[in-house]
Specification:
This protein has helices at residues 3-12, 17-29, 44-59, 107-114, 160-167, 183-188, 223-234, 264-275, 290-298, 303-314, 327-332, 339-355, 381-400, 430-447; strands at residues 39-42, 71-75, 118-123, 173-177, 192-195, 215-220, 248-251, 280-284, 362-366, 404-412, 418-425. By secondary structure, it is of the alpha/beta class. Strands 1-3-2-4-6-5-10-11-9-7-8 form an eleven-stranded mixed beta sheet, with helices on both faces. Helix 4 (107-114) links the parallel strand 2 and strand 3 (118-123). The longest helix has 20 residues, at 381-400.
């Protein structure tokens, strides 16, 4: 069941919040292999208690919102505080529970709890969110369910978020996105994903990776569910797109279409061909200083220096025992001497990137350039590094350039793995972008 269907069933009384909670518990119980658990913490009793409280409010005629009783999962870097006399730990992908100060709810969690959303649990992530493949040497790396034969990575750093949706233990999944950490797992699991533009949704109450680049994101089963999730977090509905034919869609520069896995470009091109019936294509756009921005990202950008500084100040005892997939890259950022220059360049790059939207409304490109690699191929650090950078390449542009972004599933690649179409929009155009995504998804589904 998707979120939109569940909202209608709660509203007309054909389902209760407890029914939804029991379906989530049953989905967890049906999982055959504990290694592929999406969660680091899932508490059936606490889930039921939240659902029962929601049902009691509905019986009293006083639901907190239309979302009262809707189950959703939270990435392991979100603090929740105490809910129905219980709580969930925060590990942020590390093997040790973080101090209690990191379990305070921030603006996003406070908003969803105030509207009655039910937390199913805390989902797995790459340690301190520093990676796009989903690998975690402490907790293990769950399999991408799209390939039952080969243990491929599921994408990250919001690793467990898509798996909670795919198994049916949540109807919406919240993650964070610093360089693609919502869009990569959404795309690689055939789901919809939304990355907010910087500052559009509060990031307080979330363990930081890069305070400058961190954004809140949503993963969902449908584009309509993305819009509903946005309504849950903001209280604002998405206005329907008035005239698709007047909407201008441009193509990202060639650098973001190169070095893609077999079948990735073909799937995205086919979707864009179908969307020509709906939107007005305007050719390839120019992104000033794109190559320089990508080169800076390959050198660690801001995130490496910022997470090293954060750990050194706040959690120094964690530094010696970092995950093998994460630790070397964090420690390598200890000697970044040109941080101020990097910030100044990214301010310049973001200003130029916003300028490209003078001639287009959205920019299209593949969400992820490559097929999810088999976990066995990542044991060599150099192989991991190459795959990680290429997986993040097309997504990091939105964070570096301060844009909103969505990903839509548009088929499969030559390996039979899901492929995403990414749409970028200017800073603050989040609601309009989600309206575009819904119209595009409906159109592509109608053509299928």
């Amino acid at each position: 069941m998707d979120l939109t269907t569940a909202l209608a069933a709660l509203a007309d009384g054909t389902l209760t919040a407890r029914d939804l909670a029991e379906a989530c518990v049953a989905a967890r119980a049906d999982r055959p292999d504990g290694r592929d658990n999406p969660y680091v913490a899932f508490n059936a009793g606490l889930l039921r208690a939240q659902a029962d409280a929601a049902d009691a409010r509905r019986r009293a005629g006083a639901p907190l919102s239309e979302f009262d009783g809707i189950p959703l999962s939270l990435k392991d870097n979100y603090g929740t505080g105490t809910v129905c006399s219980g709580t969930w730990p925060v590990f942020a992908g590390s093997p040790r529970r973080l101090p209690g100060a990191w379990n305070r709810p921030g603006g996003v969690v406070s908003a969803l709890l105030a509207r009655g959303a039910v937390v199913t649990g805390k989902t797995r992530m790459v340690e301190f969110a520093f990676g796009g493949l989903g690998a975690n040497g402490h907790w293990g790396t769950p399999r991408n369910p799209a390939d039952p034969a080969v243990h491929r990575v599921p994408g990250g750093s919001s690793t467990g978020a898509p798996l909670s949706l795919r198994e049916g233990s949540a109807l919406l999944a919240l993650g964070t996105d610093t360089a693609g950490s919502v869009r990569i797992p959404a795309a690689w699991n055939g789901l919809y994903g939304y990355k907010s533009s910087r500052g559009h949704l509060p990031t307080n109450g979330i363990v930081p990776l890069s305070p400058r680049l961190d954004t809140v994101g949503i993963l969902a089963l449908t584009a309509a569910d993305l819009a509903a999730g946005y309504r849950l977090l903001t209280g604002s509905a998405i206005e329907p797109l008035a005239d698709g034919g007047a909407f201008r869609i441009g193509r990202a520069p060639a650098a973001l279409w190169q070095d893609c896995g077999p079948g990735v470009v073909a799937a995205v091109e086919a979707a864009l061909d179908r969307l020509e019936d709906l939107f007005r294509p305007v050719g390839t756009v120019a992104v000033p200083d794109l190559e320089e921005a990508l080169a800076l990202f390959r050198r660690g950008g801001l995130a490496g220096a910022e997470i090293f500084g954060f750990l050194s100040r706040e959690l120094p005892d964690w530094l010696p025992n970092l995950d093998i997939f994460v630790g070397p890259r964090i420690r390598a950022a200890a000697d970044v001497l040109d941080y101020a220059e990097r910030v100044a360049f990214l301010d310049h790059f973001a200003a130029g990137a916003q300028g490209m939207f003078h001639d287009v409304d959205v920019v299209a490109l593949p969400t992820v350039a490559i097929t999810p690699p088999p976990l066995a191929d990542l044991s060599d650090p150099l192989a991991y590094g190459r795959a990680n950078l290429l997986a993040l390449r097309n997504c990091c542009v939105a964070n570096l350039g301060d844009m909103a972004a969505v990903t839509l599933p548009v088929g499969t690649d030559a390996a039979g793995m899901p492929v995403g179409l990414q749409l970028l929009a200017p800073r603050g155009a989040d609601a309009r972008l989600l309206a575009v995504a819904q119209v595009a998804a409906d159109h592509l589904a109608g053509d299928a």
